Automatic annotation (TrEMBL):
Transmembrane segments: none annotated. It catalyses: D-glyceraldehyde 3-phosphate = dihydroxyacetone phosphate. It comes from Candida oxycetoniae. The keyword Isomerase applies. One of its GO terms (cellular component) is cytosol. Keywords: Gluconeogenesis, Glycolysis, Isomerase. This is Triosephosphate isomerase. Pathway: Carbohydrate biosynthesis; gluconeogenesis; Carbohydrate degradation; glycolysis; D-glyceraldehyde 3-phosphate from glycerone phosphate: step 1/1. NCBIfam families: tim (TIGR00419). Belongs to the triosephosphate isomerase family. It comes from the Eukaryota.
């Protein structure tokens, strides 16, 4: 089954009104391929700005985080209803910086994912192992545990995109090799076949994330289980466009 190529840009806590406007203006001037789905995730403060400035029909906007409850007395949080109200259609959940620095649990991430999906957002669900976990040979076990927390409470995965992001590859310049990434993506898909069923597993896009840039993106081109990228640092730079075009 053909899965639509997908490129996400995670700006993290970077940028200002001026620099983010420049990024969007640059994207607006590009001839982007119609068949590539692009989602940019600015800091939540700038979602409104990006939604208003974006003129590209294939570029959508997402939040980087969402809460697991409706709007209410949750100081500092952002609810799914507000993200939608601002014009964004997506959110990330489970980014490793939230798992490791903010100490979000698998269960909490699963609840956020479910709440977001139930209220109309699409979700880029991030998973991945740390260097210690990789060295101990438990990469798949970790990814399976993170996925299982979600599949336990979410049965419809049609609005979920999985981003496999080995923690050791994020922001380090040390991307996984295309062969290693393909091997893990294949195992992730095989695991999903067991938990959410063959049809859904085959339809679910699995992105690779971790030090993807304008040069190395093309090396992943022929890997059958790599359906796109989640890009951090390079999504703030003009080379993001090369990543979007890397499958042409
Ligand atoms: P990076 O980040 O591309 O800067 O490695 C990826 C991510 O954290 O999503």
């Amino acid at each position: 089954m053909a899965r639509q190529f997908f490129v996400g840009g995670n700006f993290k806590a970077n940028g200002t009104k001026s620099s983010i406007t420049q990024i969007v203006e640059n994207l607006n001037t590009q001839d982007l391929p119609k068949e590539v789905e692009v989602v940019v995730c600015p800091p939540s403060l700038y979602i409104d700005l990006v939604v208003k400035e974006n003129k590209q029909p294939t570029v959508q906007v997402g939040a980087q985080n969402v809460f697991n409850k409706p709007c209410g007395a949750f100081t500092g949080e952002l609810c799914a209803e507000q993200i939608l109200d601002a014009g964004a259609k997506w959110t990330l959940t489970g980014h490793s910086e939230r798992r490791t620095i903010i100490k979000e649990s698998d269960e909490f991430i699963a609840e956020k994912t479910k709440y977001a999906l139930d209220h109309g957002l699409s979700v880029i669900l991030c998973i991945g192992e740390t260097l210690e976990e990789r060295k101990s040979g438990i990469t798949l076990q970790v990814c399976a545990r993170q996925l299982d927390a979600v599949s336990k409470i979410v049965s419809d995965w049609s609005k979920v995109v999985v981003a496999y992001e080995p923690v050791w590859a994020i922001g380090t310049g040390l991307a996984a090799t295309p062969d290693d990434a393909q091997e893990t993506h294949k195992e992730i898909r095989e695991h999903l076949v067991k938990t959410i069923g063959k049809d859904q597993a085959e339809a679910t896009r699995i992105l690779y994330g971790g030090s993807v840039n304008g040069k190395n993106a093309v090396e992943f081109k022929d890997k059958p289980d790599i359906d796109g990228f989640l890009v951090g640092g390079a999504s703030l730079k003009p080379e993001f466009v090369n990543i979007i075009k890397s499958r042409l």
